[in-house]
User: Fold this.
Amino acid sequence: MAENPAEERLRLLSEAEAFKREFERKLTPIECLSPRSPAVFISVGGGELGDLALTAAGRLLGGANGGVRTVVFDRYEGFPAQDSADAYEIFDMLNGDMLEEAVKKYIPDPDEPHAIYLEIERVDTFRVCKLGIEDGYRVASTPYGPLICMDRHMTKLMFDRLNLPRVEWAYAGSPEEIRKAARDFNLPVIIKPLMTSSGHGTTIAHQWSDVEEAYDFAVKHARGKGSEVVVERFLPELKSQGTEITQLVVRHFDGDGKIVTSMLPPVEHRRPGATYHESWLPATIPEEAVRKCQESAGKIAEFIGGLGIFAVEQFYVEGKVYNNEVANRPHDTGMITRWMLNLDEGAVQLLSTLGLPILKRDLELARSGVYGVAHVVLAPKRENHREAPVKCWKLWEVKRYMEAEGYQGDLWYFGKPAAYPGRRMGLAVAFHENLEEARRRAEEIAHYTEDRIFYG
Ligand SMILES: Nc1ncnc2c1ncn2[C@@H]1O[C@H](COP(=O)(O)OP(=O)(O)OP(=O)(O)O)[C@@H](O)[C@H]1O
Ligand SMILES: [Mg+2]
Assistant:
């Protein structure tokens, strides 16, 4: 970054906005799907979220014979979506040269119908986005989208440019700068590296003397050049009195060939720590709050533009909505859409990015009168912190248990070949008309399942 990081990033935001207009002009819907020259959909990253999009190509469109060829990349043998795609490659996706080569292998001509979905952040995002900006590849939603969303500073500047509510924040390049920039915030403050996810490198500082250590921790865990952080006022009331929302919103073609912005119902979620733990549909926030969440999400989606899903993370506390961050892709909290919406977020990503139709009713709730809660199934914490291969898991036992308890629900086992402690291995789902009961049941199924996966 240049001398003035904010100026540099604001310039990039303006560049993104100008680029979007040109980019959108060139996007066209696919009117005719052909097995002779299938459109190519690449998922860069093949975890459960990639799997959701890739399997939709088979389920909804007949796969390559229906005119959509799917390709997936990941870094290890046996990744969840490996056998869901028509082709796969295994390599380190942080290696830009390999990534570019792999994209060009499957999409030699960027004028042919295709879409590239960046499923995870641990890839050379700059290189893929450069392919979009310079060579005309259709990186979803636009080639600038993932760049804006992976950089907290740029995301915050975008919020401010769009006048969206957010927690007080400041940029800092050193512990002194944190103290100076955040001196008007009340303690505690939260210090986050510019580029991370799943809470890596984040610390809540309760006293100003904690700042030094928090800064070093952020720098150590940052991806890319790591001397920069953002500091935010921490909202302790979020966990005690508030709730968290992921507002999913999609840019897609309508029947008249125009790109429009449509809302999915807001997903609500809670997390005891920093990472995804449980989420549900429908959300319980008041209508007025839904309106605020959707208004912000709509402005963000229209600013970044292009085609595809955006997941806008928001905090709801005491009647106020705060925008936290944005993922320009499907979101882990949104996996519950698989059971609760007519189309899940993976299918919505696939269809929208390729320029295939999405109707209003596709985005509506599929079940009424119940809450659907998804709860993570995690690998056990172990003393030695080492990765262990999965030996077997017992679906029959889980299903018998659900039946005996009279629980309505489901289990999605991701099929990861090995697990480090705390790794997400699956998702347990429960339905009930009472939300607290649905949450309790989903958690119970999740823990029961955790004891029926055997490692070693
Ligand atoms: N300013 C804040 N006040 C209160 N809680 C916060 C604040 N910022 C973050 N949190 C809590 O920490 C969680 C993770 O924060 P954030 O989304 O910014 O980080 P992340 O590393 O990108 O995590 P993830 O990848 O899981 O989204 C939030 O969902 C929220 O529970
Ligand atoms: Mg987050």
The pocket of adenosine-5'-triphosphate (ligand 1) is lined by residues 167, 190, 192, 196-199, 202, 232, 234-235, 238, 244, 271, 274-276, 313, 324-325 (CB under 6 Å). The chain has a mean pLDDT of 96.
